[in-house]
Amino acid sequence: MSGPLPVRRAHELEVWPEDRRWLIEQLWAEQAVGIVGGEPKSCKSFLALDVAVAVASGAPCLGRFPVAHKGAVLLFAAEDAPHVVRRRIEGIALAAEVPFESLDIHIITSPSLRLDLGEDQSRLRQTVERLRPRLLVLDPFVRLHRIDENVAAEVAPVLGYLRHLQRSFEMAVLLVHHARKGAAHARAGQALRGSSELHAWGDSNLYLRRKGETLRLSIEHRAAPCADGLAVELQQRGRGLTLRVADPVADQPPLGTSILDRVEQTLASAATPLTRDDLRRACRVRMTTLGEALAKLTAQGRVLKSNNGYLLASRRGPVPVPLTL
Fold first, then answer.
1. Beta strand pairing status for 240-245 and 227-237?
2. C-alpha–C-alpha distance, residues 54 and 101, integer Å
3. Which residue has the higher pLDDT, 14 or 204?
4. Which of 18, 97, 139, 245 could crosslink 176 through cysteines, CB 3.0-4.6 Å?
């Protein structure tokens, strides 16, 4: 006989310490499910593998984001032959200066994995239960099923299975997925192919977009500040090919700094006034968030707007001409 659902009062719920908030600081939340999305040839698989190597080794992801909790990784790469997967992971390890043989990355070598089939769901669950990975990487979603991605009623059970797997084994799940064609002007998450269930599912999502020769990374979290427009590029480091943040790091405030402080620190390190686009790239925030911060700072007299851009009020001189926002 079934009984009532289990409940707890709010103050009885588990409290997570701050050091359990992130798997990779500012990039992927601890035990988060989510998507690495983007158009074809936008280095989605390279990014997913960089995340995998970072978690398995403890080396900073993209050379920038520290790993809070390293551990085993379970990976299924549906579109690449095993020797290609090995070469890519080995190159990323070389670039990160970590021993390739020491990486705790386990590759599923089955020729197919169908997450809409009960038998394959059971086999994946058994594998996860045996290995107890901290991260599961599945690349790409389109090769993991034969459902209609545009029908929410078909997509939701597959995502629900992955969510249940994540909660049962307290691990993170990263799903690589394609963006729709002709969605270049849509918001990153809304550009994903298929049902909106995919965008709504993620706790942490990473989106890659090409602008000319430049790759832009957007970082989206369900319960943490987001960052937009971070430039990344494939770089040759010794014999290794890897993704790295392309923006200069030295003079940029850390991502954990408040947006008002980040704007002020960025302006303080600049030799000349900065435009909104300059500030958005340097502070790694959405344009709307930046606009609100600039409005507050100018209203408080801490920042001025000139014909050439924004500058600190402490640098006020005869050159800048204040304008209205």
1. antiparallel
2. 14
3. 204
4. 139
Rounded CA-CA distance 43/54 in Å is: 16
Please state which CATH number belongs to domain 259-315.
1.10.10.10
Q: Tell me what percent of the residues of the chain surpass a pLDDT of 90.
A: 58
Q: Read off the pLDDT of each residue in 60-73 and give the average, rounded to a whole number.
A: 94
Whole-structure pTM value: 0.75
pLDDT at 139 over 80: yes
Could you tell me the two tokens for 50? 């960089």
Q: What is the pLDDT of residue 255?
A: 52
- Per-residue pLDDT of 180-231, as tens digits, reads 776 655 666 678 999 999 999 999 999 999 877 778 999 999 988 887 778 8
Q: Provide the residue ranges of all domains of the chain, joining segments of one domain with +.
A: 16-245, 259-315
8 Å CB contact between 174 and 36: yes
How would you label 41-51 residue by residue, b for 16+ Cβ within 10 Å and e otherwise? ebbbbbbbbbb
Chain mean pLDDT for the chain: 87
What is the DSSP code string of 174-185? EEEEEBPTT-TT
- 96-101: Cβ within 8 A, 24+ apart: 96/53, 96/54, 96/57, 96/59, 96/60, 96/63, 96/240, 96/242, 97/59, 98/53, 98/57, 98/58, 98/59
Residue type, 268: A
Q: Where are the alpha helices (DSSP H) in the chain?
A: 44-57, 82-96, 118-131, 152-169, 197-201, 259-269, 276-283, 287-299
Please report where in the chains the tokens 């980040």 appear, as a residue.
262
Q: Do the Cβ atoms of 161 and 136 come closer than 8 Å?
A: no
Q: Which fold would CATH assign to domain 16-245?
A: Rossmann fold (3.40.50)
